[in-house]
Amino acid sequence: MNMTCKETGLALYDQLKSKIREKIETGEWTEGQKIPTEKELCEMFNVSRITARKAIDDLQEENLLVKKQGKGTFIKRSQINQSLEKFYSFSKELTKQGLEEKAEMLEFKIMEADNRIQRIMNISENEEVFVIKRLRLLDDKPYAIEVSYIPVKFTPELTKELVDRNGLYNSLQAFGVKLEHATEKFSAVNLRKEEAYYLNSDFSEAGIKLTRRTYQGTDMVEYCSSIIRGDMFTYTVDLF
Known about the structure:
Layout: H1 12-25, H2 38-45, H3 49-61, E1 65-68, E2 72-75, E3 80-83, H4 90-96, E4 101-112, H5 115-121, E5 128-138, E6 141-151, H6 160-166, H7 168-174, E7 181-190, H8 193-198, E8 206-216, E9 219-229, E10 233-236
Parallel strand pairs: 3-10
Antiparallel strand pairs: 1-2, 4-5, 5-6, 6-9, 7-8, 8-9
C-alpha cells in the first residue's frame, strides 16, 4: 500500500520517522520484527532513498531500530533494567515489574566437581555438586541461560521437581540455607552457537556474561554462570 508523506512543515525524513514510530507504537510492527527495506519504504511512503536512509539512521541513533549486517533493520527490543544496589533474585525482581518470568529446566544432575569448580568454590577434590542448567524466559521469550553449581552437602535432598515448582533460591532457603550476600562480575561476550540457539538470537550477537558467587557466611553455596541477551537487559549501579 502506497502512503505518501504529506506536507506538514516537517522535513520529509521527520515525517517518515513519525510514520515508522506510529507503526511501532500501535503494534502494527512489533519488537524484534524486521522492517521494510529502504527501497520498500520509498515505495510505501513515496520518498527518496536518501530520505528513507536518513530516517532509519536517526531512529537507530534514537535506539528504536537496530541494523544487523547482511540481515536488515529490526525494531529494537525493549530493555529491562536491573538495579545492582542490593542482593536480588531475577525472577522476583522481574515479577515486581509486572513481567511474566519463568525458567525451563535444561539439565539437573549431580557430579564430582572438576578442577575449575573446586578452585572457584574452594571445595575439596571428589566433592559432589548439583549442576542445574536453566533457560530463563520473559513472556515466553528466552533472555538468559544460566548454570548453577551447588555443593550437595548443603542441600542433599534437593530435586529437579522442587526447583521446577518453587524456584532455586526458595528451595535452598527451605532447606535452611541462608543466602546472605553475593558478588557479581559482568563482561561483554559474543554468543556462541549453542547459546544463540537457546536464546533465539543470531550467532555472534552481543551478550552479557554474568557470574555470581552467593555466600552463607564464608561458605560459597552457589556459583552461577549466566549468558544474557545484550539487547534485552541493562544494569544500573547507584553511587552515593
